[in-house]
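Example record used in the benchmark description.
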Amino acid sequence: SVVQFSSIPDKEAFQKNKTLGQLKVLGVSWDESLGGTAFTGRVADVLKGRSKKDPDGNKRAWAKLLATSEKTKVILSANKDAHPTIESFIDDYDFRGSILRAEFEDASKDLFERVGQPIKDAIAAA
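Model output (structure tokens):
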């Protein structure tokens, strides 16, 4: 979204020189398939490839994998690497892995390329 901020005087205020903030939306654009869930899915794909057991067909294992992938994504936003663990991942198998931010960025390369288009569209609409 592209917005414009302005301040207007508050005529009903008892104090002098009081102003209110006002936002005006100038342009909006988005990509519905591009967001945090897509990036979490890429982390899950990398971690799935490193697991000794495949979580396909096991809803409980996928739920654990996605929850761990979300936490790992947040860690990778501030650190160069992460070491996720999942207790009792599949049939008492404890998953322990590691992922580098560079690996995450490489797996998400096509998503990063799509980030600029909604920004350009929002600016064009403004």
